[in-house]
Structure to design on (343 residues):
């Protein structure tokens, strides 16, 4: 049930409509060659019933809309989806369209209404998403028999779902600063970090089953690399050199390992780093038959992140957790007395 809430109604309705005309739009995109042998495709909609919620029929068009929402990548590849993911995507989409219908029906039971001005604004926003008036008319005719009233009903439905979710989920999932601080203090261990070293490396690696001559040549390369590294002025210069001559995979990131916990580094490397100040470079460090040169960007002592440093991320995390819990509870409550059939 993990999904964003407070989606603007025009966006909700646009997702539905884009899926309805989707096959025609994406057919011009060539499928990715390597994807096809292990791929399935979302079935084009035929308005076939797939579920019934308290007597209301949901169709494969509703289902396809949610499948594309869950896996939008398929829109670029003619509906293609990894075959092993298709059952899970379909199940998630089915759960969501049933949930949305239950929410809509609950909004109706509560006699929630949409102010005319809000409905009018949502319809105007929806129309702006079309490149030309002709595109809008094409969709209106194809999906709503040319009836703006039917379109308004679809938008009104989206607005009612949005309003009920705002009341039952969004407004209740707000996390105060005091709540976040209490969680931080109770779970302080989560915010501790070990002693670590922010480093860059240049590595000279031997070939497999290296001969004596190859090992000798490797040593010569390493010594030359050290001279070049010592001539660099800063982290950028060291990184550009790493890109050019290093054999390890970090060369594509300018040799940057960022912060590495002390426990994850070889003892020889730790010993060499402890003798440096930030910004200095080690000599050659031999690790079996390989050589590495390390630049110390920062020696980070073990510590604990302050609440001020993590509060925004923490509040976002707690809000997301509370949102999921509230949505799940709402779904469970709405299902209790509902008659739901999957067809």
């Amino acid at each position: 049930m993990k999904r964003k809430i407070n989606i603007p109604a025009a966006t909700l309705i646009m997702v539905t409509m884009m899926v309805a005309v989707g096959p025609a739009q994406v057919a011009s995109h060539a499928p990715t060659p390597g994807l096809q042998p292990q791929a399935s495709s979302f079935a084009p909609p035929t308005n076939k019933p797939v579920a019934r919620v308290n007597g209301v029929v949901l169709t494969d068009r509703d289902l396809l809309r949610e499948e594309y929402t869950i896996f939008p990548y398929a829109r670029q590849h003619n509906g293609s989806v990894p075959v092993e993911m298709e059952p899970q995507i379909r199940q998630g989409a089915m759960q969501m369209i049933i949930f949305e219908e239950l929410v809509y029906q609950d909004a109706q039971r509560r006699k929630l209404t949409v102010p005319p001005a809000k409905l009018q604004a949502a319809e105007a926003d929806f129309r702006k998403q079309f490149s030309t008036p002709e595109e809008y008319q094409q969709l209106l005719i194809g999906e709503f028999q040319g009836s703006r009233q039917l379109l308004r009903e679809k938008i009104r439905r989206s607005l009612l779902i949005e309003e009920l979710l705002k009341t039952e989920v969004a407004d209740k999932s707000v996390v105060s600063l005091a709540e976040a601080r209490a969680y931080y203090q109770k779970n302080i261990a989560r915010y501790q970090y070990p002693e670590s070293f922010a480093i860059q490396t240049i590595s000279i690696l031997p070939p497999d089953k290296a001969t004596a001559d190859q090992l000798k040549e490797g040593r010569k390369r390493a010594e030359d690399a050290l001279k070049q590294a010592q001539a660099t002025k800063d982290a950028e210069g060291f990184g550009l050199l790493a890109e050019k001559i290093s054999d390890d995979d970090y060369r594509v990131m300018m040799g940057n390992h960022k912060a590495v916990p002390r426990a994850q580094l070889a003892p020889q490397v730790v010993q060499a780093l402890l003798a440096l100040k930030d910004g200095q470079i080690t000599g050659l460090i031999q690790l079996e038959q390989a050589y590495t040169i390390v630049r110390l960007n920062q020696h980070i002592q073990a510590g604990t992140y302050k609440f001020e440093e993590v509060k925004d991320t923490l509040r976002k995390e707690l809000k997301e957790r509370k949102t999921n819990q509230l949505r799940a509870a709402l779904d469970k409550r709405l299902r209790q007395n509902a008659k739901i059939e999957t067809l």
Summary: The first helix runs from residue 9 to 20. Residues 1-37 have pLDDT under 50 and may be disordered. The chain has two domains: 9-175+317-342, 195-301. The longest strand covers residues 290-300.
